[in-house]
Amino acid sequence: MDDHHVEQKNTYLEEVSFTSLSDCLQSSLVMDYNSLEKVFKFPPYSSPFQPVSPSSMGHIVNNPYLNLNSNSPVVSSSSNEAELKENPNDKSDRMEDNEGDQHGVGESSKQLTKQGKKKGEKKEREARVAFMTKSEIDHLEDGYRWRKYGQKAVKNSPYPRSYYRCTTQKCNVKKRVERSFQDPSIVITTYEGKHNHPIPSTLRGTVAAEHLLGHRGGGSGFLHSFPRHHQEFLMMKHSPVNYQSVGSMPYEHGHGTSSYNFNNNQPVVDYGLLQDILPSMFSKHES
DNA sequence: CGACTTTGACCTGCGC
DNA sequence: GCGCAGGTCAAAGTCG
């Protein structure tokens, strides 16, 4: 089983020219969430590009707004400005700001969250990481326990987006799961926030996955999803951190000047918060 | 019976 | 100001 998965993972990584997941994470698959959002208009299907290929990857790769020719590492950017802009009173704060209150449920909590926040008060948005996985399963097993708290139809997509929250008390990590309508076999998962607890040990695969990745340490739920369920990791992105050093990113919506670089038409991906989810993997990269 | 899902309503930000 | 879309809440339903 594990062998099979390992094989699968390697295959994929090989495609993107990486010999290991770490490589992959540490070299180029770096785009920050906002960038992706712009590129994809996150979700991808509502992106400004023409639907070109049947697959999301093709979609990205062929995106006229992206420079995919270079072999250089990717990258991205998210302008902090954009980020700030997006954050005004981020709704997601409602709950997060009320930490102890999150379980206080009921109207009181609802009202509190609605009125308790000061006007104009801003809070930084939680780091987010998104990645695409080829899988028939929408909700990928990643080692953590999640509770679905909502589902919404997505504009221009026949597939709904599901919202999940980590069930561990005091852990405000959330994730969104949606399927690419261009390639229904691809599931786009976006994590937001950091887990402040270890992966539930009762879940299978944890050790195997860590072993497989030669990595141990709490945290990275998503890693555990690789070896399971016939999933193929397609892309991921991580946060803002180095996009500047890599160069780039001016792609303000439609300006077509973006500088994302990918290794040959390969999957790419997404971003943002991997470093939060996989702190140990990024520590090197960022230090 | 607790944990989780479903689903309609509600809230908020944003563009026009 | 209005309408739309994304995100969240919470009651009701389902499952083990």
From TrEMBL:
Presence of the UniProt keyword Repeat in the record: no
Single GO MF descriptor: DNA-binding transcription factor activity
Region (Disordered) location: 71-127
Family: Belongs to the WRKY group II-c family.
Record flagged with keyword Endoplasmic reticulum: no
Name of this protein: WRKY transcription factor
Chain ranges of the WRKY domain: 135-200
Cellular compartment(s): Nucleus
PANTHER family recorded: WRKY TRANSCRIPTION FACTOR 71, WRKY TRANSCRIPTION FACTOR PROTEIN 1-RELATED
Basic and acidic residues bias (residue ranges): 82-104
Alphabetized UniProt keyword annotations: DNA-binding, Nucleus, Transcription, Transcription regulation
GO cellular component: nucleus
Residue ranges, compositional bias (Low complexity): 71-80
SMART domains found in the cross-reference section: WRKY
